[in-house]
Amino acid sequence: MNNLIKASSTLLRRSAKKQVRYHHPSPFDPQTTKGWAAALKEAELPTTVHDAEVKRGLEIGLPGASSIEDKTIPTFSRGELPHFAGINTFMKAPYVENIHDVGNYDATVVGVPFDGGCTYRSGTRFGPQGIRRISALYTPYNYERGIDLREQMTLCDAGDVFTIPANLEKSFDQISNAIAHVASTGTFPIILGGDHSIGFPTVRGLASVTSKRIGIIHVDRHADIQEKDLDERMHTTPYFHATNLPNVRPENLVQIGIGGWQVPRAAVPNMVERNTNIFTMDDVEVMGIEKVAEMALERAWDGCDAVYLSYDIDSIEAAFVPGTGWPEPGGLLPREALKLVGLVAAEGLCGMEVVEVSPPYDHADITSLMALRIVVEALGSMVAHGTMGKAKDIFDKPFVPF
Ligand SMILES: [Mn+2]
Question: For the chain: N or C, fewer Cβ within 10 A?
Answer without folding.
Answer: N
